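Hi R.,

Here are the chain sequences for the assembly we discussed:
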Amino acid sequence: MKSVRKQLPRWLVALPIAMLISAGVQAETVARYGISMADIPLTTGQPDRGAGAYQFTGHTLYDPLVAWEANIGTRPGKLVPGLASAWKVDPKDNKKWLFTLRKGVKFHDGSELKADAVVWNLDKVLADKSPQFDAKQSAQVRSRIPSIASYRVVDEYTVEITTKDVDALFPYQLPWFLISSPAQWEKLGRDWSKLASQPSGTGPFKLDKLVPRERAELVKNVAYWDKTRMAKTDRIILMPIPDAMTRANALLNGQVDIIETPPPDVLPQLKSSGFKLVQNVTPHVWPYHFSTLPGSPWTDIRVRKAANLAIDRDAIVKLLNGLATPAKGQLDKTSPWFGKPSFKIGYDVKAAKALMAQAGYSPAKPLKAKVIIAQGGTGQMLSLPMNEFIQQSLAEVGIQLEFEVVELENLYLHWRNGAKAEMNAGKGISAINLGYVTADPFYAITRFVDSRYIAPNGVNWGGYNNPKVDGAIDTIRKNFDTKIQDKLLAEIHETMVDDALMLWVVHDVNPHAMSPKVQEFVQAQHWFQDLTTIRMK
Amino acid sequence: MLTYILKRLLYALPIALSVTVVSFMLVYLAPGDPLNAIAPADAPADVIEALKSAYGLDRPVPVQYALWLWRAVQGDLGTSIASGRAVVTEVFGAVGNTLLLAGIASGLGVLVGCVLGALAGYKHGSGIDRAATALSVVGVSIPHYWLGLVLTIIFSTWLGWFPAMGAGPGGSADWSWDWDHMRYLVLPAVTLSVIPMGIITRTVRALVADMLEQEFVVALRARGLSGMAVFRHVAKNTAPTVLAVAGLQVGYLMGGSILVETVFAWPGTGFLLNTAIFQRDIPLLQGTLLVLCMFFVVLNLLVDISQPLIDPRMGRG
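And here is the predicted structure of the full complex:
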C-alpha cells in the first residue's frame, strides 16, 4: 500500500505525459491512394504522364506562379494567385506581363523564393544551353507554355515575361509551369536524378519516400505559405496500381483508402459494401474527330450532323454504369464557354436518316468510313465496347464504319501527324477516336479550330479552317477582359457544334471510390485535383 | 567433361550476340514513337525533333545499336527515357523482386508437379492418375490473369486472408522474411506456379509410366528390390528430362509474367516490361529484354552442364 502511495505522484506526472505522447503518435493521419498509373510521375518539378499526374507530384510538391482553383467542386474553378500574388499586362506593350511574387515563401529546403529562382526555372525548361536545363522536364512543359518569348528579373520580387504575340489567354498556361528549388539542385551536385528522390518545392506536401513503381509518401508541409490550403491529412501514400480490377480489390481489401477510376462492373459491389463513389463534371470529351479535308467522307455537314444524332448517349452512359455524362458538344453544358449552339445534339434516328438521305446515303447504300481507335488506355474509357456501340448505331442510319485498332501510344502518333499525313489519309483513315482534355480555352477549343494549329503544327487534326473562327481567336488573344473572352469562346464553341466538327459522345466524370475512413475529398471539375482536401477519420 | 562444358560455353556466345540484336531491333518493329515516353501527346513537331536529337534517336539504327552494344558490354545499359534513372538499376531492382517471386513459384510448381506426376505415373490408369492429369490439364490451360483475379477475389476480397497487391507493407525496399511480408507472396506465387506445375506433372507422369515398363525395372523387381529402391532408379533416369523441362519453366518464370505482376502490382521485371512497352521506353525495354534473355541463355547453359553430371551418357554424346 505504501509503495502504491509512493508511486502515485510519479504516475500522476507520467500518465498525462504518456497520454500526450500517445495523442501525438496517433495524430498522424494517413491516406493510401491507389493511382491508375504504372509509375510515380516525375518528382523533379514537371510531372510526366499527362494532366492527371499534376495532382500527385505536381501541385502537391510544387506551386505555379498562377494556380488553378482546385479545392472547389460545386462550380468550374478559375485562375487564382499562386506564387505570384498579382500579375498584370504592361499597358504600353501588351506582350509584357509583370508577376509580383509573394514575400516570405520558402522552398522545402529552407531557401527563399525570389525572382531569380523563377527565371532559373524558366531557363530549366526553355534554355537548352543553361546548366540546369532538363530535357525531360522541358519536354513535359514546353508545349504547354508556347507563348513565352523571353523573361527577366525586374527586381527581387518581380518577374517580367514577354510573349511572342499579344496573348490575353497567357495566364492559363501558367498552372502547368512549376517552380523547383535552385538551392536544392546545387546542394545535390546539380543532379536532377538525385533531386527526384529529394525534391524541394514550395508545395503543401514534402516527399518523404520514393520507391519507383511502388510508392511515394508525401508528408504535410506544416510551414506551407497558403494557410487556406493546408493539407488535412498528415501523410498521403501514392501507390501505382495500373490494373483497374486490382485497384478495386485493394480498396475492398483495405490496402488502400482511395482509388481513381474504379471499373464500372465493380460499382454495385463497392456501393453495397459501404464504399463511397465521388464523381463530378470533368473537362474531358470522348469524340470522333473528323477529317474535313477534301476526299474525306465527313466533308458533308449533313453526314456529320447525322452521326451526332444517331447515338443513344444515355445507353452508353448505362453501359458505363453511370460513369459518364452525355455530350452535347465539346464542353459540358455548365461550362462558361458552352454558349447556345443552334444544332441540338441528341438521339433522333429519324432526323439522322433524313439527313443521310439528303446526302445520298441509306442503310442499303451506306457511306463507308474508316476510324482509327485505341484498344484502351488513359482517357479512352471502355474503348472497344463503346466503339462497337457507335458502329452499330451509325450502321442504322447508313454509315458503315471500319476500325483500325492500335495501341494508344501509336494512336498519338497518328494524331500528331494529322489527317493529311500518309499514315492516315494514305490508309483511308478519316476520323480518329481520342479522349480530349478540355480544361482551358487552349485545350478545349483553340487548339482544335485554329487553322494555324493544323497538324503537324498542332492538333487541329482534321484540318478545320474557318477564317471567322481564326478572327475570333485573334480578338480573344488581344482582349484582356475575361467576360469578353468567355463570350467569344462561347461563340467559337457554338460554331464548332453548329459545324458538327466532331462526333461528341460522352464526358468522363473522373470517378473516385473511397472507403468510409475518408471523411472529405473535394473533387474539382478539372484534371487538377487538390489532395490537400483529403481528410481522414 | 571439360570439353563438353567449353563447347556449350562457345555455343552460348553467338546465341548471346543474337539476343542483343533481337533485343535491340524488336522494339523498333513495334509501331509507335519512343518520344511518347517523355513528350506530351500534343507536343509540336519542333519539340519532337529537338528531343530526337537530344536522345540520339535521329541516328541510323545500326549506329544506335553499335553504341548501345559497346556500352552494354561495359555494363552500361543507358538511362530510361521516361524516368531518367539508370536502366541497370531499374532492371536489377526488378530482377530481385522477380527472382523472389519466381523462386517460390518455381519451387512450388516443381515440387507439386513432381509429386503429382510420380503418383500419377505409379498409379497409372487409377483415380489418382485421372485426378492428377485433370489438374495438370487445368493448370496448363487456365489463363494466369484470370486465375490471379479469381484468387484475389476469393482470398483477398472475400476472406481477407492475403493482400490483393504489392510487395510488402512498406514496398519491396523494406522486404524481410517474416509473415507480414511473405503473405504478399502467396497469391502471386500460387498463380504463377500453376503452369509449371501442370507441365511438370504431365512430363513426370509420362516418364514414370514409361520407365516402369522398362526392362531394367522388371529386372530390379525380379531381384527383389523394394519399392523405394526401384523408385530411386526410376527417379534418377527421369531426372535429366525433368530437369530440362523444369529449367525451361523456371526460365519463363524468371522472365517475369507481365500479366501476373500487373494483376498483383508486383514490382518485378514483368511489371517493368509492361511499363516500358506502353511508354515505348526504348532503353529500358532493350535493357530489360537483354537481361531476361541472358537469364535464359545462362539457365539453359546450366541445365546443359548439369545434365551430364546426372547422366554421364549425355556428356559423351
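Chain B touches chain A through 52 residues (CB under 8 Å). The mean pLDDT of chain B is 85.

Let me know if anything looks off.

Best,
T.
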